[in-house]
């Protein structure tokens, strides 16, 4: 079954003034590399200048929330895209990491006052992950493209509101 991207909106957002950080896990390198490349390519197509794109890595998906928090403090960015890939194995490890990372990424964006784009693939098989990274022609597309679009849209539409929310402590 083919997986489509996010629903298209009537408006395309200008990313020329947007600064985006991408933080990615190094686990499942083939999938991650494709997702990061797709995200960067689409950011540039949306007008984000190369000098306004920061790319950092962490060992695995579990470390993404700490990396996001650190980047938010160290870099002047409007949005952070957190990219990881978890593939279910024979133990509960997958469930624990998926839930912990998902909850922390959701929570941290309100604390830092910046959109954190959820780029964590949680797949049952490695082939599912490859499809979502655009590595299996005709089965899906590169979701890194979607995450780039989300980063620009959220920065343009809601960036200042999130900063106010974080400063108010809510």
From TrEMBL:
Keywords: Riboflavin biosynthesis, Transferase. Its EC number is 2.5.1.78. Pfam families: DMRL_synthase (PF00885). Signal peptide: none annotated. One of its GO terms (molecular function) is 6,7-dimethyl-8-ribityllumazine synthase activity. GO terms for cellular component: mitochondrial intermembrane space; riboflavin synthase complex. It catalyses: (2S)-2-hydroxy-3-oxobutyl phosphate + 5-amino-6-(D-ribitylamino)uracil = 6,7-dimethyl-8-(1-D-ribityl)lumazine + phosphate + 2 H2O + H(+). Pathway: Cofactor biosynthesis; riboflavin biosynthesis; riboflavin from 2-hydroxy-3-oxobutyl phosphate and 5-amino-6-(D-ribitylamino)uracil: step 1/2. InterPro entries: LS (IPR034964), LS/RS (IPR002180), LS/RS_sf (IPR036467). One of its GO terms (biological process) is riboflavin biosynthetic process. Gene3D superfamilies: Lumazine/riboflavin synthase (3.40.50.960). The keyword Transferase applies. It is an enzyme of class 2 (transferase). Catalyzes the formation of 6,7-dimethyl-8-ribityllumazine by condensation of 5-amino-6-(D-ribitylamino)uracil with 3,4-dihydroxy-2-butanone 4-phosphate. This is the penultimate step in the biosynthesis of riboflavin. Homopentamer. HAMAP family: Lumazine_synth. Belongs to the DMRL synthase family. This is 6,7-dimethyl-8-ribityllumazine synthase. It comes from Dekkera bruxellensis (Brettanomyces custersii).
